[in-house]
Amino acid sequence: MTNKDELRITLHSAALTEMAATKPKKLQRALDYQTEDMPPEAEPLADERDFRDALNSAAPTDQIVELWRRQLTKWDFAQNPTWCPSEPRTDERRADMYKLLGLDESTIKLLDSLIPVSKTPGPVVISDTFVPWYKPELQQGQSWYWPAYRKLLVEGKKWPEEAVSSLDVASDEVVERLADPTRAEAYQSKGLVVGYVQSGKTANFTAVIAKAIDAGYRLVIVLGGTLNLLRAQTQRRIDMELVGRENIVRGGNEYESDYSDDPAWNQGKFLEFGDLPSAQGAFDIVRMTTRDDDYKSLLQGIVALEFEKREPALPLYDPRNLHKSSARLMVVKKNKAVLGKLVKDLRKIKTPLSEIPVLIIDDESDEASINTTNLYKPDTERTAINQKISDLLKMLPRAQYVGYTATPFANVFIDPSDAEDIFPKDFIVSLPRPHGYMGASDFHDLDSDVPLKDRNYANSNEKAYIRDIPAVDSYDDTYLQKAIDMFVLTGAMKLYREDVGGLGDRFFQHHTMLVHETGWTADHKELLGRITKLWFEGGYTSSEGHARLRTLFDTDVAPVSSVRAEGHAVPGSYDELMRYVGPATFRIGGDDKPIIVVNGDKYIETGEADFDKRAIWKILIGGQKLARGFTVEGLTVTFFRRRAGNASSLMQMGRWFGFRDGYRDLVRLFIGRGEQAGKERVDLYEAFEAICLDEESFRSELKWYSTKVDGAPQITPAQVPPVVSQHLEWLKPVSPNKMYNSRLAEIATPGVWTEPTAYPEKSEDLESNARLWLPVFDALSSEATRFACTDNKGRTRAMNAFTTIISPVEFLNLLEGLKWRAPSFAPHLAYLRAINREGNPQVDDWVVFAPQLASFDPDGCGDGNQIVLGSRERRFSYFERKRRRYPLFGAISDPVHRAVPTRVAGGLDSGGDEATESLVQKRRGAIVLYPIVEPDNKTAVRSDGSIDLKKLVMAFSFVPPSSARRDDGRVVRFTTIDSSREGTPIIDVQKAK
C-alpha cells in the first residue's frame, strides 16, 4: 500500500467515522472538512473523482472497499434510523443513503457493483452500554487475518458477497463489545452468541478471532467441545481457514505436517499467505495445539507461551509491544485435566498475566461449561470444568469470554451476580438464519394456512420430509429397512444429479444416514447386528430389491422431488435412475463395511467418521458423540428415536439440520411418534415442534426487546431469562439444575396478536370459564358480517363474524375470574390490568369477534360444527382443536382470522375494507372467541346443538391497542432472583435501576 493509498484510507475513514455518529452526509463536504487537520498532500484526495478512480481499480477485498462496505452495510442494516424512512436492506434504503451522500451516478454504479445491497436479516443484539473502540481501519496494528479469511470465503469457498457481508457485520457486533486490548484499565467482557444447530457458528467465531487478533488480542483459547473428535474438527477448521499453511509449517517440511494425510492439504485448500506473515510486516500465529494433539504440559509449551516485547519496560498491552508480538492460539477440549495443565502452565510464564489481552471462545457453551452446583448453599464447590474456566477468568483479568451455542437457555439462566461465572453480562447476539440453511422449522408446518386435509408434498414440510415410526409396541425392522432403502435410493439420486444434472463428479463427496436410537453402547452393538443383517439381505441389485426401490421412488421420492427439487435434475421414471443404484450401493458397502459405529467403545466402533480425510458414504450409528457439535456431512436420511429430558439436549440431537446444497428435496427424517415414557405420551416429532416454537419465541422476543428506548437498551442480558418459553410441560428448556435466576412479571404486546394456550382440563374449571363468557355471547350481533384485511405478507384475509363491544372494566373483570392450567398467562394479565385499569385506562373499549365457519347456518341447517350458547340459545360455530403439546394446546386460531382484529387494534395498515375500517379506533383493542370441542369430547355436543359446558374450552386471542404502551416505552417488566441480594429477595428490575 502506497502513502497515497494510506492517506486516502485515513481521509475516508475519518469522514465515515464522523458520519457514523450521526447520519450519511455530503461526501465532498465531509472530505473537505477532514483535510483541515491533514497534510497538504491530502487535499487532492478529498475529491469524489479520486474516490471514483480508486474504486475503478479496486478489488472487493481492498481496504478502501472494506471501509465503505462496512459502513454502507451498517447503514443497510440500521433499524429505524431517524435519517431514513425506508426499510433496512432494500434498494430504497441504499438510494436514500446515496442521496444523502450526494454521490455522482457513476460513483453509485461502482459502489453497487463492489458492494451490493445486503438483504439478509441482521443480527439481533441485546447489550449493556459499552465504550466504542473498534475501528479496524484506524487501528495501529495491521489488518491481516480478517482480510485473508474474507478473501478465502469469497474466492476459495465461493461464499456470496451478501453472506460474507452479513458475517462481517455480525462479527463486528461481537468484537466491538470486547474490551479495547490496548486500554490501560483491565476490563473483562462476557457475551453469548446464539446461532442455529449446524448453521455456521464456527464461521462467526473464526471471523471474531481474526478481527480480535488483528486488533491486538494475543492469546486465543478455543474451548472446542467435550470430545476429541469435536476438538479436532474445530482445530482443523481454524487451521485451514485462519491460521494458514505457513503458520502451520513454520519453515518445516510440508510432508511432515499434521495434515499431510488430509486431502484438502494436498489439494492446496488451506489458506496461504505466500510467506510467514511476520516476514511481510504482519505477525504470526503460533499454534499451541494441533489436529491430533490437545494442549500438553511440556517445557517447550511453556516457552512457547512467553510473549515477546519490543519495549521491555512497557506492558505487553502497550501498542508498541502488542502489534509486534505473535499471537498464540490453542483449541482445547473441555476436560478437567487438560484445562488444569493450561492453568498450571500459565502461572509459570514470565509475562505478567495481567498484561495479556486474551480471547476465550467457548464452543457449545451450554455443554459442560455451566456450573450446575447450587451456589445459594454455603461452601459449595463449582463443577469441575466450570471451575477451570473460572480459574482462567480470575487469573487473566484482560480475558474476554464469548460463548457460542444454538441452545442458549442454560447460559441465560446463570446467576448474573456470580462474578466468577460465565453469565453473558455484556451482550447477547442472536445470529440471523443463514441463506440455504435447513433448520427445525423446515421440518414442521408452523402457522400453516393450509387445512390438514389439503396439505401435500408442495405445501407441507411434514408430508415432504417426515416419515413416522410408530409406537414401541408395534415397532419392527420394517421401518428401518425402508429407511435404508431410502438411503440407497437418495444415493442413486445424487449420482444421477452428478451425471445428468451437471453437478460434476464427486460433487456429493459425502452421503450418510444416521441411526440414533439410544446413547447406550450395548444397544449400539445390537443395532449394528440388525442393520448389518438388513443391509446384506436387502438385495439392492436383485429384482426384489429393485421392486422395493421402484415403489419407494414412485410413491415418495418422485412426487416430493417434482415439487421441491429447486431446479435440480429429477428422473422421469425409476428406469432412468436404476443404473445408478448399483454404483450407489457399491460406494456404501463395496468394502463390506456399510456401517460406522461412533460411540467411543473400541470393541464396538467400526471404521472412522473423519470426513476431512476421505469421502464417506456410510450408515452411522451413534449416541452422545454424534448428539452435539459434531457435523455429520452429507446427512440425508435420519432414523431417530432418542428421547431427552429437556429441550436443549433434544435440539442438539437434530443432526438433520444444516446446509443441504443440491439435495434438500431428498432429506428424510424417520422419527418416533406416540411412544410411552412412563405415564407420559412422548411424541418426538411434536417435541421438536415445541422446541421450534420455544426457539422462535426466544429469537422474536430478543428482536423485539433489542429496539432501544431513548437511545438506551430496553433490557440488558441480565434480564433476558424470562423471555425463555416452554411449549411442552414435560420438556423443560434445560435441565432443572440450570434453571434459576428470574421470573417474568409482565409482558406488553401492543398491536400484537396474542394467543393463550394453557386452558384448564378440570371440568369444574372449564364450566366456570364458559359461564364467564356466556354474557358476551348473548351480546353478540344478530347477523354475522364479512370482514377483510390485507396481512403483513400482502395476502387478503377474510372472515364472517358476529361482533359486540365491551368496556375495559368488563374485560378485566372477566379475565380476573378465568382459570388456567399453567401460570403462563399471568404476565399478560399484569399488562392487561395496567392498560384496562379504572382511573387512567389506555383502552377505550374492546371489539369482540366470534368467527363462524363457512358452513355455518344460524338455523342449524348447515353442515359441520355448531353449538347453542347463552340465554338466547343462539347457534355459533365451534372449533375442533387438540392439546398437541399436552397439556397445552398448539395453535388455536385460524391464521385467516388474525389480520382483521390486528388491523382494528392498529397493528396493521388499512386494508381498504369498509366493514373493517368502520371498527378501527386508536384506543380500541380486539378479542377473538374460539369455543373449542376437543376430539375426545365431541359426544358432548347433543343432537339439538346444546353442549355440556364441562366439556367446552372457551379459548380466546386478543390484540391490545397499538397505542397501549408503558409510559417508559418498555414492553416487559421482570422480577429477578439475584443471589447478591441478602436473602435472595424478589427484585423489581424497574425499581432496582
Notes on the protein architecture:
It is a single chain. The chain is an alpha/beta fold and 993 residues long. The chain is built from 31 helices and 29 strands. The strands form 7 sheets. It has an 8-stranded mixed β-sheet, with helices on both faces. The protein has a 6-stranded parallel β-sheet with strand order 10-16-14-11-13-12. Strand 6, helix 16 (384-395) and strand 7 form a beta-alpha-beta unit. The longest helix has 22 residues, at 478-499. The chain is globular, with a radius of gyration of 31 Å. The relative contact order is 0.07. The model is unreliable at 374-379, 676-681, 735-742 and 974-993 (pLDDT under 50).
Write the layout of secondary structure elements.
Elements: H1 3-20, H2 27-34, H3 48-56, H4 63-77, H5 91-101, H6 105-114, E1 124-127, H7 145-156, H8 161-175, E2 190-194, H9 201-215, E3 219-224, H10 228-243, H11 245-249, H12 263-266, E4 285-287, H13 299-304, H14 319-322, E5 327-332, H15 336-346, E6 358-363, H16 384-395, E7 399-405, H17 409-412, E8 427-430, E9 437-438, H18 461-465, E10 466-469, H19 478-499, E11 511-516, H20 521-536, H21 543-564, H22 574-577, H23 581-589, E12 595-598, E13 617-622, E14 635-640, H24 647-652, E15 658-659, E16 668-672, E17 675-677, E18 680-682, H25 684-705, E19 742-747, H26 763-779, E20 785-790, E21 796-806, H27 808-817, H28 826-836, E22 845-852, E23 866-869, E24 874-877, E25 879-880, H29 899-904, H30 914-917, E26 924-933, E27 953-959, E28 972-977, E29 986-988, H31 989-992
Parallel strand pairs: 2-7, 2-8, 3-5, 3-6, 4-5, 6-7, 10-16, 11-13, 11-14, 12-13, 14-16, 22-26, 25-26
Antiparallel strand pairs: 1-8, 9-15, 17-18, 19-28, 20-21, 21-22, 23-24, 26-27, 28-29
Helix pairs in contact: 1-2, 1-4, 3-6, 4-8, 7-9, 8-9, 15-16, 19-21, 19-23, 27-28
